[in-house]
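Ticket #4471: structure output looks truncated?

Reporter: J.K.
Steps to reproduce: submitted the chain below (278 residues) through the standard prediction queue, then opened the result file.
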Amino acid sequence: MSDPKTEDLHELMNRLRRAGEPFALATVVRTISVTAAKAGAKAVIRADGSIAGGWIGGGCARGATLKAAKESLADGETRLVSIQPEDLLKDLGVSAGDERDGVRFARNMCPSQGTMDIFIEPVLPRPSLVILGASPVAVALADLGPRVGFDITVCAPAEDQDAFAEANERIEGYALPVEVPGQRFMVVATQGRGDQVALRAAVSVDAEHVSFVGSRRKAASLREKLLAEGVPAEDLDRVKAPAGLDLGAITPEEIALSILAEILRLRRKDQRGEAGKS
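Returned output as attached by the reporter:
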């Protein structure tokens, strides 16, 4: 029979995933001597450093673990924290806060003077690639996107939905939800079929990035039409056209690859410590 506490923790993690909330999972992987928590103990830690559920011990482990969890969520990298008594740290030739071979060391100030190693894994919501249109480029984006970590939302008329083999979410037409959890990247790939209505929908909601598959001239013409309809200029200023990096792409698959490359550069800019441009 499974442990009810473990089941509760799994339920909590599933709920946070569904809500699009990032969290870190801290797991005690090794203990030596007397420690409050034993190997296998787990805790779910929110981005603000609060423990949402589970338990990994008392104050001896809490500070170093929460600090490492917040850093892990900021850069998307795992952490291994080794909490040891000061005399053992000296024997290793390290101080609290030092890192060696991927291990960060912390001091155990508790009377038990045990050692505890904690592995911290960030669980980040998958970003959403919202594809508006059913052009060959749109179909190629829906095929390539999941391979580089995106959930796919397809927005297209009902009669065009069959062009897409799979999608995490399907929207008939272009009635986009205003707010969604996690990051959302928009690509208008209508290519002559519903350009104006799709672009209007894309700029009307929050998104990390909005791009348009088409020439600068075509995008400029659509901009003037949408301005005349009352769409705010600042909303239209967000549109990157033509979509994608200039890779000399010709085929739909090549164009889709250039678009994903541009989005990935934007998505990873903070993790690389670069300024990036949207």
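Triage note (M.O.): checked the attachment and the full token line is present. The first strand starts at residue 23 and ends at 32.
Status: closed, working as intended.
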